[in-house]
Specification:
6-stranded parallel beta sheet; 3-stranded antiparallel beta sheet; 16% strand; Rossmann fold; SIR2/SIRT2 'Small Domain'; 9 strands; alpha/beta; 2 domains; 10 helices
Amino acid sequence: MTDTAVDDEILSSAGATRDADSVVAMTGAGVSTPSGIPDFRSEGGIWSEYDPMDFHISRFEADPEGFWSERVELVEDAFGGDAAPNPAHEALAGLEADGHLDGLITQNIDGLHQDAGNEEVIEVHGNGQRVACRNCTTRYEAEGVMERVRAGAVPPRCPSCEGLLKPDVVLFGEELPEYPLFRAQSLAERADLFLVVGSSLTVEPAASFPRTAADAGATLCIVNLDRTDLSDRAEYDFRADVTDILPALQDAVRKGS
C-alpha cells in the first residue's frame, strides 16, 4: 500500500470513528513492545527463556517460595526497564478523552494504558503492577512486594491478615476473571466500530471479541504488523507500526470533528 493509499485509509477510518456511536479498542502485545516490553509468546519472547510451567497456578500453590523467587527474575527481565507509554498509548488515551472511545480491552498486564490516561480499561489478564491477597483479597502495589521478596521475605504475606500474596494476573491454569470478560463481551456486542491494535488475534477468548463485534455488524479496523485471521473481514487493515498509525488516526479524527 502506498503512502497516499495509507493516508486515504486513515482519513476514511477517522470518519468512521467519528460517525460511530460506540467505538471499542482491543490491544495486544504489539502496543507495548515499542515501549521496550518484550513479547511473551513470539519467537525470542519471554517464554523462550522461561518455562511457562514454572508460573502455573499449581506451582504457585505447591511452591510459593520458588514461584516468587523466579517471578522477580521474570518481572525484571520483562519490565525492568523504564517502560513508559508510547505514542500509540497516548493516541488511545486521547481518543477516549475526546469522546471517541467508549472502552478499551487489553490483553496486556503492564498498566501503560492507565499511565497514558485511559480510564475505561478492561484488563482480561490482570495487572502486573498489583498483587492480591489470597485470603482477604486486599490489593497492593507490586513493586513494594517485590522489594520484600528481594530482601528475603519469601513468600510475601499480606500485612493485614498474613495471607499469601499472589500477582494480580491470570497465571497458567487459571480461569480468566468473569466480570472483565462479561464487560468485554458486552462492549463488543454494542460496538459500531471495533479497533484492534497490536494483536495477532491468536489467543482466546480475547480473539473472539472483534469477531463478535464484526458478526454484530461493527466496522472492523486492525492495526498490526502482520496479517491476522480477521484481516479478510476488516474494512481497514493497516500492516504498519502502531506508533505511526494510531497518532495519525487520532489527529485525523480531531481535525474532522
